[in-house]
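Chapter summary example.
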Amino acid sequence: MKVTVVGAGIIGLSAAWALCREGHQVTVYEQGTLPNSLGSSVDQHRLIRFPYGRKLGYTRMVFDAYRAWEQLWADIGKQLYAPTGTLVLASATESWASDSATTLEQLGIGVRWLNAEQLQAAFPLLMADGVESAFYLDSGDVLLAEKIIAAMAEYLSHKGVILHTQTQVRDIDPDRSRIVLAGAIADADTLVIAAGAWVTRLLPDFGKRVTPSRQVVVYVEPPVETKAQWLNAPMILDIDPECGFYLVPPVLGTDLKIGDHRFTLTGNPDRDRTAGEAEAQQIYKQLERRIKDFNRYQLKSACTCFYTVAPEEHFIVEPLGNSWVMSGFSGHGFKFGPLLGLRLAEAIAHRCTPTFLSQWAAGEP
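The structure predicted for these 365 residues follows.
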């Protein structure tokens, strides 16, 4: 079968990888370079971890996601991740941590609860003030996102997948699996639309279902004497409805990164790409209440990326005419990329129904 994929982020490349494995002839179109620094998938790192609040479907899906990553590592011949473990902190007003622990328990995954004294002893770089509850999991890994995208592109090219970069798709016809380029038309047997925050440019009606969300992340330089400790630190999910953040430790030559859990639900992915000083400082200063000797941590840089958010953060994988749309991954899609690609390939091969795939992707247990 001849397949066209629009978008070369983790979702588009995972679809191309899985379909190539099935023996299909795959062509990928990417509007930027590859990796595309403006894409949602391209940054130093992304996270894979089990805690997911009350969302049993997505929590269970993480088991299969790990297996899919193992298949990808075997194919590309390298493992681009670092195990870190997961530390979840929560304020008194936030139930996400306890909900996550309950869901994990249903799946046979135990967590190690920590009181303030235990938290301080186990993680001396942190301050336990204001933490109502905390738990630790041995599982949890940092995925080296940009390196993964580059490695996948190289592998796919060697396997015969045609990668068109800096090639903008002007229009699509989902019923005909057709794309319109500058001065050319390309037809296929099926079309996969994985255009990230630009999906509404190609499918305007999709603007009623997903919202681009401009997110700012900052990179921080820790004090020299703490660097060895940070290299062995877990990812940290600090859950607070007013000022929660996530922290990625500086593994394998990457920088210590801080991001805000909350969605902005604003911004245009073709503009608004520069992180302002004030918004960078706002995220950076969230560390002040949680990290010891905060004033010795230097703000190195900041950047933006765009998520595409659907209601309830449910993923959208569904047929549209003779095509497929993959959207609404809300900043959580990277960890599931290879798995989503494999499941899409199964649906295209009629080994599962479109209805089943769409419900599964939406996290329905």
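To summarize the output: The longest strand covers residues 298-309.
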